[in-house]
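Regression test case RT-17, inverse folding.

Input:
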């Protein structure tokens, strides 16, 4: 159980940081960077940097010999773990430099923000591929990709919304609509994968059957997860129509993140290797 909590914390922090970077890049294209909103970008990228740094520190607990972690990059051509480490390092450097350049009002932040978004997505894709290409049937069938990328999008939307929600300008409302739409898609995709997964696990032999039984035993946890996600989504929609910012935005973000944490615990909790 301790391992599940550790893996959950690491993956959630990493995906939240990348998701914020992706949405901040979109904000730059939709809202634009102006002197009056520069502080919002600096704060957003600084938060993404801190989330990523915390995730990287947690990742060291999963390595038997942390000091040899850089050696893993040498297998980048054949190892998804090596690719994750490489893109994670690249993402951290880009997102930290983006925050620094924006704070110092130096040129180059636009290019680095694009590189941060791209390297971040590749990092999470590599992270999901590690789990998708194992002997755990429960992590196949697209489950790892939908869960990891879906969480990245969902958390990125709501966390960036805290910095960029304003109802008095059309560009901000347009960004909120884009974020809300992506949030809906990510939640529906994560919910739908369980129905698809249940049918696939039944055909995957003893390991698949055991994973299916474990999943059925977590119905209450699964219900709670998507209840939090749904309430968070409804809060987002209500805030948009009320044209009012405030504490509800933080409640929305907390509900979405909590829902993703519970969903991730289910993901790790139903993994059963073939042959056991």
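Golden output:
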């Amino acid at each position: 159980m301790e391992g599940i909590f550790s893996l959950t914390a690491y993956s959630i922090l990493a995906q939240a940081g990348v998701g914020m970077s992706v949405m901040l890049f979109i904000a730059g294209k939709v809202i634009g960077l102006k002197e009056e909103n520069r502080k919002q970008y600096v704060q957003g990228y600084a938060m993404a940097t801190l989330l990523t740094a915390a995730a990287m520190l947690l990742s060291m607990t999963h390595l038997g010999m942390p000091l040899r972690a850089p050696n893993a990059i040498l297998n980048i051509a054949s190892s998804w773990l090596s690719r994750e480490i490489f893109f994670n390092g690249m993402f951290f450097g880009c997102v930290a430099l983006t925050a620094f350049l924006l704070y110092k009002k130096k040129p180059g932040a636009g290019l680095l923000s694009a590189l941060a978004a791209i390297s971040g997505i590749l990092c999470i894709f590599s992270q999901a591929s590690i789990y998708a290409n194992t002997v755990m049937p429960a992590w196949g069938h697209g489950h790892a990709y939908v869960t990891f990328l879906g969480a990245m999008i969902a958390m990125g939307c709501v966390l960036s919304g805290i910095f960029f929600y304003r109802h008095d300008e059309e560009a901000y409302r347009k960004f909120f609509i884009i974020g809300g739409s992506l949030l809906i898609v990510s939640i529906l995709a994560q919910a739908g994968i369980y129905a698809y997964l249940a049918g696939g696990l039944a055909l995957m032999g003893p390991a698949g059957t055991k994973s299916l039984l474990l999943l059925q035993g977590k119905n209450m946890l699964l219900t709670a997860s998507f209840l939090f996600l749904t309430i968070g989504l409804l809060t987002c929609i209500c805030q948009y129509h009320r044209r009012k910012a405030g504490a509800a935005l933080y409640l929305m973000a907390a509900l979405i993140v909590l829902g993703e944490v519970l969903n991730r615990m289910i993901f790790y909790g139903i993994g059963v290797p073939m042959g056991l």
